[in-house]
Design goal:
The chain is an all-alpha fold and 291 residues long. It contains 14 helices and four strands. A two-stranded parallel ribbon has the order 1-2. Strands 3-4 form a two-stranded parallel sheet. The termini are far apart. It holds the Pfam family HHH_3.
Length: 291
Amino acid sequence: MKSYFTFSKEQRNGIFLLILLIIILQCVCFFINKQPKNIVINQEELAKFQKEIDSLKVIELQERKPKQLSFNPNYITDYKGASLGMSNEEIDRLHAFRKYNKWINSTKEFQQITKISDSLLKAISPYFKFPDWVANPRSKTNSTFYNNTPKTFAQKQDLNTATVKQLQKVKGVGEYYSERIVNFRNKFLGGFIADIQLQDVYGLTPELIEKITEEFTVKTPRSIKKINVNKADIEELVTIQHIDYDLAYQIVEQRKLRDGYKALDELTKVKDFPVNKIEIIKLYLHLEKEN
């Protein structure tokens, strides 16, 4: 252990010098840190930055607030009325009025019933939402006629002579479907036999067909010679829309098994018969008992 603590003269001088350097450096660092730093602040830029932060805070607070949605003032509850700033008396007046199944149909009438102040009315009235029939009233005479009085056969236009532009007047038809209807009609010499054939026009929905037949109907049907389903052969049956050779064969075979058809609706019992097209197929057929 003695060898660790025994130093020569040169070693002692070196250790003393090292300690002295450490003390000097510590003092220098202490005094340097104590000196105040001169920082130049641009007050104009700082104010601008602070103003921007404040505006962002205001926007954030506005977004956090619950948004007011439109509402029908006839259905204001106690809680809703209080949140809008209405007094209990004003809310009670509204409820007393509605108790007899009466309706408020304008902002002015709402104020007359509730007796709220002009300032409160101005604040809440932009959120009032009355029914469409109140906001956009229509003529009762025209509306009733259009909705409830269907056109007679004489009032309707002939579907077999209707032009593309005339058909476009029906809501939902447009240029595309009106051209489809006319092109399909012109495939047959003489046009349609009956309104039901509109079902064969590709793309027409039942709702759209109903709208068309409210304005148009077949007044000049195409003249055809109906086929006796109890006597027709396969070659005759295939001339009918929606009947091919396989179906014609099945119709003839079923006729033999049944000893003739008693009604045209019995055709729906034939294998692979297009049931949804029965009314169109019946246009070309008649029933006469086979001898």
